[in-house]
Amino acid sequence: MEGTQLVQKAMNFRKLHSSFFILPNAWDAVSAKIFAQCGFQALGTTSAGIAASRGYADRSMPFDTMLDAVRSIVQAVDIPVTVDIEDGYGENPEELVETVKQIINAGAVGINLEDSTMDPQMPLYDIPDQQKKIAAIRELGKRIGIPVFINARTDPYWIKLETPFTKLEETIKQAHAYQEAGADCIFVPGIKTVSDIRTLRQEINGPINVLAVPELPPAHELEALGIQRISTGSGPFRAAVSLLQSIGRDMLDRGSFELMTSTSKISYDDLLRL
Fold this sequence. Notes:
The chain is α/β, with parallel strands linked by helices.
């Protein structure tokens, strides 16, 4: 992809955050194309979906496997793509920068960087360390002339810190630090109560991203609360797999193909055209 085209995509993606939009998360070329055909203006990737579809648990997928999926997704659509890079595929800012460089070279315009460690004894990375990573990505974008969009994910709600107050207080503290380091948007997966979302909006300047989870308020309420972006994470992938599971059980338990045939809205010819 030419540099000028990538810059324009990056700018278009950044502009989306000046209002409200829904960002679906794809795991392969077909899911990306379907979301694009639905009319979404941009899409993200789901690390969990990509990993599971290739036989890996989340956070255990090799980087090359993820990068190959990113290339196929970017090449499948004309809309901007942002990539879930988990905790960065690197032990230090230098390795993280190399990760992001390859993601951008693949044609993506943004990244999602999370701060959970998967270690129960130390569930979140130290703030100064995470700030260095964000600052390094920001510097990379300036150096290569691509306004890489940094979605800084903070996980107090996702890892279920002890009390609601602790979750909210820690989220706000992390968010301020990440914005100071150069983050463009703050992503808070797991937050879902109106009161917490309202407080978060009052305490944080700039775009906020929430995750579509059970009991999350509907899109129009979140827009009214001042949220800019709702992403879906692995939700669409898990829903697709759940349907596949139901189809399999329908075949074996009832000897029926009704569920498969009744839910197949895309014909074989349509599939080939994808």
